[in-house]
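Database export, one record per block. Field names are fixed; values are copied verbatim from the stored entry.
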Amino acid sequence: MAKKALSIRPRTVTGADAQPRPGALGAGRSGTLRAGHEGAIQWLPTLLRGRPRKVADLVRRPRSQRPNELWLVIVDASSSTRRHGALAQAKGLLAGVFESAYRQRARLAVLRATGCQPHWLWQGQKASPALHHWLGELGAGGGTPLIEALQQASYWLESRQRLKPMEQQRLLILTDGRLKDWARLEPLTCPTVLVDIEGGPVRLGRAKRLAEELGAEYRPIAYL
């Protein structure tokens, strides 16, 4: 599920106490090229330049360098996500995202939207086993300060981009969309996926509208 959740095209058990399920996230190799003295020797270009007499005469294949990546995750853990196993499904997806961030050495930022205001759990550090401990204890309750979380995340990303202009940012939002009416939002500045975790027979469908305003890819969790 995590692979589908964060494969963003560049413009990128039920119950709240259920145990998260591991997942996997794949990412293509991308980034700028740099000369690498340890790269494979390219014999044809080398010989076209003449017979090599010293190591410096060898033409080597440039090595691809994965750009630094930051994955920002906003988790809606309001009381409405207790219904129909919504938060439990979100936790399963997050377990895969955290695992993949650790394997790919991506930096993570995690912002939880619950209660009266959003709270940062992680802000740009490397993934750690502590994230899985937090995830196992994550429960739902309180209000839905998701709009405030989006605004806070936007300011933080812009500030970080000024400090780290080469960093590639991605945003993942998990929400059931059960919000009161909100002022129209501006599209976000980085590739974004919004995963709709709303379940049950009666659905408001507001998460899709939210994704459209944010310029995000919309994905119901049932299809991940």
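Remark 1: Residues 9-37 have pLDDT under 50 and may be disordered.
Remark 2: Helices lie at 2-6, 43-48, 86-104, 129-137, 146-163, 206-214.
End of record.
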